[in-house]
Structures are given as structure tokens and as C-alpha cells.
Design a protein that fits this description.
This protein has about 150 residues and is α/β, with parallel strands linked by helices. About 30% of the residues lie in helices and about 25% in strands.
Length: about 150
Amino acid sequence: MRVLHVCSEIFPLLKTGGLADVAGALPPALVRAGCDARLLVPGFPAMMNEMNNLRLVAELPPRFGASALRLLAGTLPDSGLPAYVIDAPGLYDRPGNPYYGPDNHDYSDNHRRFGLLAGRLPNWRKGSILPGTPTSSTATTGMPALHPLI
């Protein structure tokens, strides 16, 4: 079985709570059980800076307010787990907390930022942009969990 985990944070790259712990532990456990588990994460600075061997998979048309949009592939530094990164600097290239701005309030465009992460998944699967297109996908709790609804 091929499983794609869609998550906004993953330990040890980016952690604000328990979501990162689950996203960091479940995919490697599935690999040990014989699954082909991969991740899809947003291009937050912590993800972009720590991911190994990032390479371009596809240039994508603008969507959800992102004027520049690319899909990258790489591996997690601790486990070597394959991961895809949505590189949309206008949405994700922000320092600090991934959900809140310096004023400690939600970013006003969070609906776009996480809509892109959640909403692109069905289109990528149909178009086979993701190598080894998954047979199933999961969205760990949090904003990406909206992906079955979009």
C-alpha cells in the first residue's frame, strides 16, 4: 500500500504541538510495516532548510493566491522518508510560528495557505504528478484535515 500523509508540521523539522509528533512517528512506523509512506508538507522555512536532496518535480500554475508554485521532492533528515514540499514562497516563507503572525493572531490568508496544502492533493493524484501516486492518503488533524472536503 502507498500512503501519502498530508501534514503542516513534522517532528523534528517543525513542531508546535502533538500534530508534529504523530506526523513524525506514523509514516516511519508504516514503512517498517511494509508500506510505501510519504509526506506532503508546506514549504515553511524549517521544512525547506532541513529537508535533504530537494529537487524540482513540477512547476505548477498559480493557485490559492500563490503566484509562484512548485512541487519539490526530498527526504527527511532523520529517517530518509520521502517527502514532497509545496514551494509557494508568498504563502509559506514566513519566519516563526507557521500559523500566527508576529502579532500572535492568525495570518489573514491562512485559508489560502492551508487550502493549497489540502486542496491540491486530489488534483495531484488524478494527474499523477506525484511519483508513486498513493493508493490512499491521510491528513493528520489540523487544517490539512480539510482535504477530503475540498
